[in-house]
């Protein structure tokens, strides 16, 4: 993914962490539903169902989780919309992705006699509020929506377009990620970064080096140089040992990435040569 897809890289890194995903989802799903889920069983499935052409504007993560009581396995599908405006056809794509998840479940378990339920959650971080319905049937002509032969489901929506930066919920890393994304999408950039700085200082202290790298690369990809330097100065106030210039660090990381890429290319070339 690299810096070509900064939103995707940030989202996938942070929410692939089961603990971060758990805290975030528990904070946003309705309590009645959240209480029925056995959150200790939340497990990430290493896969993606988004169309290749939409990688610029969508990312997704799939988890399995068990329901309390009956022990039913549920798929929890988190679709992150990182475009500045909501899309009325997102529900249609969501249905396609859900069908792909069910297809995949048949490959894993050809003997199944029931479909595993899928809980679809759309997480949106754009500039404009999400004004579209969450019910799939609303895509049909108004007078014809009640037919029993039409598919119907509704997705949960986490719309952060109008959220105040201080209202961000979730674990430490998810809060940093959300604030950095807010700063990338919205006018109230300074407020979001001001709140992210002490949290970022905490991340550096808890030894989450790979997280710091992901956050720094995201900042470097989405903000002007001046903004990154100001943010670095703020982080240093909370964690003086953080070291110098975040931009220098970002550049070092990019160089390392390029080096690794070249090394990998070289190794793969040698392997291929040897095999031939």
Q: What is the topological layout?
A:
Elements: H1 6-15, H2 18-28, H3 31-34, E1 37-45, E2 58-67, E3 73-81, H4 90-108, E4 118-124, E5 156-159, H5 172-185, H6 189-205, H7 209-222, H8 225-238, H9 246-275
Parallel strand pairs: 3-4, 4-5
Antiparallel strand pairs: 1-2, 2-3
Helix pairs in contact: 1-5, 1-7, 5-6, 5-7, 6-8, 7-9
Supply Rg: 21 Å
Average of pLDDT:
87
Query: So what's the overall shape?
Result: globular
Strand adjacency order, main sheet? 1-2-3-4-5
| Beta strands, count | 5
Low-confidence stretches: none
Sheet with most strands: 5 strands, mixed
| Strand composition percent | 5-15%
Number of helices: 9
- Oligomer, anyone? single chain
- Element-level helix/strand string: HHHEEEHEEHHHHH
Secondary structural class: alpha/beta
End-to-end gap? 30 Å
**Proportion of helical residues:** 40-55%
How would you describe this protein?
The chain is 48% helix and 14% strand. The protein is α/β, with parallel strands linked by helices and 276 residues long. Strands 1-2-3-4-5 form a five-stranded mixed β-sheet, sandwiched between helices. Helix 1 packs antiparallel against helix 7. The longest helix has 30 residues, at 246-275. It is globular. The model has no long low-confidence stretch (mean pLDDT 87).
């Amino acid at each position: 993914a690299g810096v070509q897809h900064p939103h995707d890289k940030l989202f996938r890194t942070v929410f692939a962490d089961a603990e971060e995903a758990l805290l975030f989802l528990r904070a946003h799903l309705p309590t009645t539903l959240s209480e029925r889920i056995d959150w200790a069983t939340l497990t990430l499935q290493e896969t993606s169902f988004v169309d290749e052409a939409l990688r610029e504007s969508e990312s997704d993560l799939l988890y399995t989780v068990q329901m309390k009581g009956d022990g039913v396995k549920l798929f929890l599908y988190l679709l992150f919309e990182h475009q500045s405006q909501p899309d009325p056809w997102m529900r249609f794509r969501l249905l396609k992705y859900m069908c792909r998840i069910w297809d995949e479940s048949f490959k894993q378990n050809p003997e199944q006699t029931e479909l595993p339920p899928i809980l679809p959650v759309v997480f949106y971080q754009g500039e404009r509020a999400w004004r579209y319905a969450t019910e799939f049937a609303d895509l049909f002509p108004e007078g014809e929506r009640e037919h029993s032969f039409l598919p119907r489901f509704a997705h949960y929506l986490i719309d952060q377009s109008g959220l105040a930066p201080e209202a961000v919920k979730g674990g430490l890393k998810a809060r940093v990620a959300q604030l950095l994304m807010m700063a990338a999408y919205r006018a109230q950039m300074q407020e979001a970064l001001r709140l992210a700085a002490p949290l970022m200082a905490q991340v550096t202290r808890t030894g989450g080096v790979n997280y710091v790298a992901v956050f720094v690369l995201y900042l470097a990809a989405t903000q002007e140089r001046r903004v990154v330097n100001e943010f670095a100065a703020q982080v240093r106030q909370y964690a003086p040992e953080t070291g110098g210039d975040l931009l220098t660090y970002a550049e070092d990381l990019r160089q390392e990435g390029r080096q690794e890429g070249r090394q990998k290319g070289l190794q793969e070339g040698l392997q291929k040569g040897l095999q031939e």
